[in-house]
Amino acid sequence: IGVCWVSILDEEQVKQILNAPVENELVAYLCLGYVKEFTDRPQLELANWERRKSQESLIYYDSYQGNSSK
Fold first, then answer.
1. pLDDT for position 34
2. Which of 4, 2, 22 is nearest to 14 (CA)?
Protein backbone atom coordinates (compact mmCIF):
# COMPACT_ATOMS: atom_id res chain seq x y z
CA ILE A 1 0.00 0.00 0.00
CA GLY A 2 1.29 3.44 -0.91
CA VAL A 3 0.55 6.84 0.57
CA CYS A 4 0.35 10.25 -1.05
CA TRP A 5 0.26 13.64 0.70
CA VAL A 6 -2.15 16.08 -0.95
CA SER A 7 -2.19 19.69 0.23
CA ILE A 8 -5.56 21.13 1.28
CA LEU A 9 -6.50 24.08 -0.91
CA ASP A 10 -9.80 25.04 0.77
CA GLU A 11 -9.54 24.13 4.45
CA GLU A 12 -12.97 25.52 5.38
CA GLN A 13 -14.71 23.48 2.67
CA VAL A 14 -12.96 20.29 3.79
CA LYS A 15 -13.89 20.99 7.44
CA GLN A 16 -17.51 21.38 6.39
CA ILE A 17 -17.52 18.16 4.34
CA LEU A 18 -15.87 16.16 7.15
CA ASN A 19 -17.79 17.93 9.93
CA ALA A 20 -14.42 18.77 11.53
CA PRO A 21 -14.27 21.23 14.45
CA VAL A 22 -13.50 24.80 13.38
CA GLU A 23 -10.63 25.03 15.90
CA ASN A 24 -8.78 22.15 14.20
CA GLU A 25 -6.15 22.97 11.59
CA LEU A 26 -6.22 20.61 8.62
CA VAL A 27 -2.96 20.46 6.69
CA ALA A 28 -3.25 17.62 4.18
CA TYR A 29 -5.12 14.63 2.85
CA LEU A 30 -3.27 11.33 3.18
CA CYS A 31 -4.45 9.10 0.35
CA LEU A 32 -3.83 5.36 0.74
CA GLY A 33 -4.10 2.76 -1.97
CA TYR A 34 -2.54 -0.04 -3.94
CA VAL A 35 0.27 0.96 -6.28
CA LYS A 36 1.65 -0.72 -9.40
CA GLU A 37 5.24 -0.23 -8.27
CA PHE A 38 7.38 1.48 -5.66
CA THR A 39 10.04 3.79 -7.05
CA ASP A 40 13.41 4.54 -5.46
CA ARG A 41 12.61 8.26 -5.36
CA PRO A 42 9.36 10.20 -4.81
CA GLN A 43 7.29 10.92 -7.93
CA LEU A 44 7.67 14.70 -7.54
CA GLU A 45 11.43 14.32 -7.46
CA LEU A 46 11.39 12.07 -10.53
CA ALA A 47 9.35 14.72 -12.37
CA ASN A 48 11.88 17.41 -11.31
CA TRP A 49 9.08 19.24 -9.50
CA GLU A 50 10.57 19.10 -6.03
CA ARG A 51 13.83 17.80 -4.62
CA ARG A 52 13.90 15.67 -1.50
CA LYS A 53 14.93 17.60 1.60
CA SER A 54 17.54 16.16 3.90
CA GLN A 55 16.39 14.64 7.18
CA GLU A 56 18.72 17.04 8.99
CA SER A 57 16.78 20.01 7.60
CA LEU A 58 13.44 18.60 8.83
CA ILE A 59 14.10 16.87 12.17
CA TYR A 60 14.83 18.86 15.31
CA TYR A 61 15.70 17.70 18.81
CA ASP A 62 14.60 19.49 22.00
CA SER A 63 13.79 22.74 20.15
CA TYR A 64 13.38 24.29 16.70
CA GLN A 65 16.79 25.03 15.16
CA GLY A 66 15.72 26.07 11.67
CA ASN A 67 15.45 29.40 9.93
CA SER A 68 12.44 31.40 11.16
CA SER A 69 11.80 33.00 7.76
CA LYS A 70 9.79 31.25 5.06
1. 95
2. 22
Calpha distance 68→66 (Å, rounded): 6
The model's pLDDT over 19-30, given as tens digits with 9 standing for 90+, comes to 988 888 888 888
- Distance (Å, whole) CA 17 – CA 35: 27
Q: In the chain, what are the domain boundaries?
A: 2-57
Would you call 34 helix, strand, or coil by DSSP?
Answer: coil
Cβ-proximal residues to 66 (8 Å cutoff; 6+ apart), any chain = 57, 60
Angle 45-6-27 from CA coordinates, rounded to 5°: 120
When pLDDT is cut at 50, 70 and 90, the band that residue 68 belongs to is low
